[in-house]
Amino acid sequence: MKLDDTLRERVAGRLAAFEQRGLSALDSRRAAVAFALIEEGTGAMLPGIDAPAAWSPSAAVLLTRRSALLRNHPGQWALPGGGIDPRESPEEAALRELHEEVGLRLPDSAILGRLDDFVTRSGYAITPVVVWAGRAEGLVPNADEVASIHRIPVREFMRADAPLLDAIEDSEHPVLRMPVGHTWIAAPTAAFLYQFREVCIAGRSTRVAHFEQPLFARR
After folding, report:
1. C-alpha of 7 from chain center
2. DSSP of 128-158, one letter per residue?
3. Paired residues of 219 in beta bridges
4. How far apart, in whole angstroms, are the C-alpha atoms of residue 129 and residue 95?
5. C-alpha dihedral, 4 to 179 to 202 to 160, nearest 10°
């Protein structure tokens, strides 16, 4: 799947037709993440799988591993993002956080739309904003927040074994995970990845806000 104008039009069109669900969680802090579509480049960096030798224009998603020194969710997979400042929209927050965390500055025209909000067990109501990042060379991790930057091919999220659903004792809903290489990513990030796959690639209006997070991701 190539990161080209055809894919951009498809994703933008399906997000425009999608009835995005925001959540009025009065006791939750508002946050936004940037779901950045990017070229696979030379750094697919799937765990246990070598990166390609030459630059690839295939579509990928920009993900990070959070710094092990962070108080909240250290070492976990994440989309660039953070709290929404007063008088700031989710789109503005997502673009700001993208620049602060990985050094990628994008214009407002890069915004393609939103996926459903997700309220986490740690008390955040997160809005995922899908953005078009293109080639995006020269990414630099913010050492205070980001341990590493990864370009994960979109095709990895189309695997037949995705998603992984696990029963959990304290909820009627299963924990959602998305396999990547020889490991996996947990919700809430996995929920955004799965919904993007369903809505933007497969064309299905799949909801994800009900899925659970594993116990370690709730802190």
Report:
1. 17
2. EEEEEEES--S----TTTEEEEEEEEGGGGG
3. none
4. 9
5. 120
List pLDDT tens digits, range 100-111: 999 999 999 999
| Chain position carrying tokens 């994440």 | 78
pLDDT tens digits, one per residue of 160-216: 999 999 998 888 999 999 999 889 999 999 999 999 999 999 999 999 999 998 766
Q: Do 215 and 171 touch, CB atoms closer than 8 A?
A: no
**Could you give the CA distance from residue 190 to residue 128 in angstroms, rounded to a whole number?**
12
Q: What is the Cα–Cα distance from 69 to 101, expressed in whole angstroms?
A: 15
Measure the CA–CA gap between 162 and 17, rounded to whole angstroms: 24
Place of tokens 């990895």: 156
CB 145 within 8 A of CB 66: yes
215 φ/ψ angles, rounded to the nearest 5 degrees: -60, -40
Give the CA count within 13 Å in the CB-facing half-sphere of 21. 13
Q: Which residue has the tokens 């995005």?
A: 20
Pair 95, 75: CB distance under 8 Å:
no
Positive/negative CA dihedral, 199, 202, 206, 208: negative
Helices (H) and strands (E) in the chain, counts: 3, 11
Give the residue carrying structure tokens 């070492």.
Answer: 75
* Both structure tokens of 47: 């765990």
